[in-house]
Write a structure and sequence with these properties.
Blueprint lengths: L18 H19 L6 H14 L3 H4 L8 H13 L11 H10 L15
Helix pairs in contact: 1-2
Length: about 120
């Protein structure tokens, strides 16, 4: 940040998944655990894949439920904040391209800018 810029407000916001979204999240984890109980060996790859799917389902409810009309509470919260702050800026940080692309699309009426970091080969 520039030294002459106004201070940044960093306010972590906690929200709950809707009951049906939480149910889908729990089903994803349970399904993975059942696959492991049937003899599948948990290894670094399996654990990593489950971790990444669990991270992505939080804001990509529509993708994981195969219903694009499902919008996560986190996106609805961002909409509320953007409506409240008017012309002020809101920075949303996401770790996955699927999430940044989805948020950019769903928040399009606010004319968002999107920055996606590169990935190495």
């Amino acid at each position: 940040m520039r030294s002459d810029a106004a201070p940044v407000n960093f306010i972590p916001l906690v929200y709950e998944l809707s009951p049906s979204h939480l149910k889908l999240y729990n089903e994803l984890v349970t399904q993975q655990m059942l696959e492991m109980e049937d003899g599948t060996v948990i290894d670094a790859l399996t654990a990593s894949a489950l971790y990444h799917r669990c991270q992505q389902i939080i804001l990509n409810w529509g993708v994981f439920s195969d219903d694009p009309s499902k919008v996560a509470n986190g996106i609805e919260l961002a909409e509320e904040i953007l409506d409240e702050i008017g012309e002020e800026k809101l920075v949303i940080v996401a770790n996955y391209r699927m999430t940044t692309t989805m948020a950019h699309s769903l928040l399009a009426r606010h004319n968002p800018a999107m920055i996606i970091g590169g990935l190495s080969d």
